[in-house]
């Protein structure tokens, strides 16, 4: 056995010498876990849907107030563009954050 | 929701001791270790639905603990200055004073010295050492957890080993 292997073994043995969590700490932790309020997680697409409906309402409003005007004509593609952008960005953000969460990283070291 | 809580509770039962040991080595005082230990599980609870426990759950838990510790390092460092950690050397004396146990006592003394030496390493060297030896994480896993290149992890582990070896040699350890 080489010196490095001996040191490895010694390091592993000394660092992994178990320390039992104090019962009080353990009890408080379990209590906190049980008491943790359930969080409601809204689906990622819900804000996008609400935003889309708002945009549609706005476009409909513009068309109702200023029918057959340049503004009403412009509002249709602009609104569609906004909706498309929000859907794309939301989906991209969802994919991005999922990746981030899966690889829980430690930075600033 | 109860299911996630049960999963976390199960993690407390299955890996609590290992994580607590890790926290004791990472943080400087028992109080900090207790805080870190509890915070880690509570953070895990917040991460419900995103847990990936298929590969080395203990390593995952220790990575989360390292992240938390890293975030609050200043606070912990300040506390450490106020109340530095001293290992309890008395445990060596608890071993019966017989000739046959001399070797065991010596080994325990070496282990204590080694733990102290690890504790005195700088953070950049200490954290990879703890993750490598305590969490059984590979160089690649440590590299992704700490967001540093694999070469850097290897180099830091090598540097740490050299320092520890030197420290042990200084105190009379001959391997």
From TrEMBL, chain A:
Highest taxon above the source species: Bacteria
Keywords on record: Membrane, Transmembrane, Transmembrane helix
Regions crossing the membrane: 44-66, 72-92
Protein name: Uncharacterized protein
Species of origin: Paenibacillus brevis
From TrEMBL, chain B:
UniProt keyword terms in alphabetical order: DNA-binding, Sigma factor, Transcription, Transcription regulation
Annotated Pfam families: Sigma70_r2, Sigma70_r4_2
Keyword Transcription: yes
InterPro entries: RNA_pol_sigma-70-like, RNA_pol_sigma-70_dom, RNA_pol_sigma70_r2, RNA_pol_sigma70_r4_t2
Keyword tRNA processing: no
Signal peptide: none
Superkingdom of origin: Bacteria
RNA polymerase sigma factor 70 region 4 type domain mapped to chain residues: 113-164
Ranges where the RNA polymerase sigma-70 region domain occurs: 11-77
Protein name: RNA polymerase sigma factor
Lineage: Bacteria, Bacillati, Bacillota, Bacilli, Bacillales
